[in-house]
Design a protein that fits this description.
The protein contains one helix and 43 strands. The two termini are 31 Å apart. A hairpin with a 2-residue loop joins strand 17 and strand 18. The chain has a domain of 83 residues: Macroglobulin (MG2) domain (Immunoglobulin-like), CATH 2.60.40.1930. It has 535 residues and is an all-beta fold.
């Protein structure tokens, strides 16, 4: 049997599509000591824009820094922008960041200005929330020192921030203060908005309790005119309940919160995907709060252990979303019409950690061991049959975080032993430091090598699906053969263009047993796989 290595096909698509590979500022090395140095400090957080540019915020002690990078990793602003610097503020370090809607960012941070120091326990017992806006040109737009959102006398705070869509932001947080001078002796879940000119517009209380630890904020998403606040309340038996408050961007809260919502995620700040209920239902909600569709989700599947640390729901970039219920490498995908399908994503069970939509219907998954893979919407790996290594020495980095680049790639930020706050980028074709330009949307999922996926389901009765990739225009055959290697049936026999394809075999007329299926390109066998037909 003649075989052809995958690498033999890797560069052939370049003969037909004018891709421009740009050697960028992003390093091509996967070692942390060769990564892109951002600045001293820790707690890097990032937002990415549709044009591939990104803004990274970070900080240390009493200073909040921010810098913008173009798609190639070059600094857009000549110098690091200092969003806040005050020797008396004793800044906690790090800041949350959202887009201002016009190429800049709004930052939120916890600040000790005016806080009370507990000398016995050597810690502050309360803190304030401040915000600052940095516009697309790197100018600090609001008042020096930031806008005070909530003063320190109301206690300690833990919060999230969402863009308001007009240049300002909405902060949602749990705060609580007990047994100190001026303490409110209560815990409060609240939302507050700062407008585009830096003026605080409103502050609304959603829940309150006289006990500390009752309220837990999970996440905040804005979709159109509404902010969805996902939180838990331990006052409800047996172990606390999950709720979602809905707050209008005008500051009006209500109706009463949803009960039992598992998680919410917004796509482009305009559409919300929400899964909740028992049995669970996945809903898609438009910008004005209308339910576009609702799809039942199999409860056993939904509650299976995912292994993913974040992003249980991931928008696919084309109107649907993924449910990261990993079950032997298979995932649920719900398309833009609400139809639920299960596909095999080879190897994704070992990539539990972080996942992002690639913007064209596919998925990028990465783990903390420095491995990543990109899949198309049918689960076909686009970076080869094995995950690529985007970081070869993860043991030398700390405080890692991961971000999709909105272009099929992944950016990781981390504190490196050798260079403080740093970043690494892997582009849409799985090549560290290489940015591909001049590519139309139709070309984004061009396979880089021939690929034959495991059929699904397997074992099957009587129909199974076979997915395969063709990296160059070729006469393509998919053959079914028996244990003796004799041809049983040819299910594909035609000229195929570059791309990812699907074939289905209905074995109703055949006997149960073990079969093999083979992919041939221009008469050359690429790969053979085994499958089992059980009646």
């Amino acid at each position: 049997m003649t075989s052809v290595s995958h690498s033999a096909y890797r560069v052939i698509p370049l003969l037909f599509f004018p891709l421009v590979h740009v050697q960028a500022q992003w390093p091509t090395s996967t070692r942390t000591d060769s990564s892109l140095h951002i600045n001293y400090g820790i707690s890097g957080r990032m937002i990415t824009f549709d044009d591939g540019s990104s803004i990274i915020s970070h900080g240390v002690e009493n200073t909040v820094f921010v810098q913008k990078f173009d798609p190639e990793g070059y600094r857009v602003w000549p110098d690091i922008v200092v969003a806040h610097d005050n020797d008396s503020s004793d800044f906690l370090g790090g800041s949350r960041i959202v887009s201002d809607g016009s190429g800049g960012a709004v930052l939120l941070w916890e600040d000790y200005r005016g806080a009370i120091w507990d000398s016995i326990n050597s810690q502050y017992i309360n803190e304030a929330f401040y915000m600052q806006r940095v516009d697309r040109d790197g100018n600090v737009a609001w008042q020096e020192g930031g806008v005070l959102v909530v003063p320190p006398d109301s206690g300690t705070k833990a919060g999230r921030v969402a863009s308001d869509g007009t240049g300002g932001a909405i902060v949602v947080a749990v705060e609580g203060g007990f047994n100190y001078p001026g303490a409110p002796n209560r815990e409060r879940l609240f939302a507050a908005r700062v407008g585009p000119n830096g003026t605080k517009l409103w502050d609304v209380t959603l829940e309150s309790s006289t006990n500390g630890g009752d309220l837990n904020l999970y996440d905040v998403d804005r979709a159109g005119r509404f902010v969805y606040v996902d939180y838990g309340d331990s006052r409800y038996p047996p172990l606390g309940q999950h709720f979602t408050w809905i707050v209008d961007t005008a500051g009006v809260a209500g109706p009463p919160p949803w009960v039992g919502s598992f998680t919410n995620v917004a796509w482009r700040d305009s559409v919300l995907f929400s899964i909740g209920g028992d049995p669970p239902i996945l809903e898609k909600i438009d910008p004005v709060g209308n339910v576009l569709w609702n799809s039942p989700i199999d409860q056993d599947t939904c509650l299976s252990i995912t292994g993913f640390l974040m992003n249980f729901l991931v928008p696919d970039g084309v109107g649907g979303c993924y449910l990261l219920c990993v079950d032997e490498d298979s995932l649920l995908r719900v398309n833009s019409s609400g139809i639920v399908s299960r596909f095999v994503f080879p190897g994704i069970g070992d990539l539990g950690g972080h996942a992002f939509g690639d913007g064209v219907g596919g998925l990028v998954a990465a783990n903390d061991d420095g491995l990543a893979q990109r899949y198309d919407s049918l689960g076909i790996p686009l970076w080869g049959s094995s995950p690529i290594t985007y970081q070869s020495d993860p043991e030398n980095s700390y405080f890692e975080d991961y971000w999709g680049d909105n272009n099929g790639g992944i950016i990781s930020t981390f504190w490196a032993i050798s260079s403080s706050l740093s970043a690494q980028h892997t582009g849409r074709y799985g090549e560290p430091g290489i940015v591909v330009t001049s590519v139309s949307d139709d070309d984004k999922n061009i396979p880089q090598r021939a690929f034959l996926a495991q059929n699904f389901p397997n074992p099957f009765n009587p129909v199974t699906t076979i997915r395969y990739s063709v990296p160059f225009r070729s006469h393509t055959r998919v053959k079914i053969v028996d244990l003796l290697g004799q041809d049983v049936v040819t299910i594909v026999d035609e000229l195929k263009e570059v791309g990812n394809h699907v074939a289905r075999w209905d074995a109703t007329a055949f006997s149960s047993g073990v079969y093999f299926y083979r992919l041939e390109l221009d008469g050359v066998t690429v790969k053979t796989m085994k499958m089992v037909f059980l009646r």
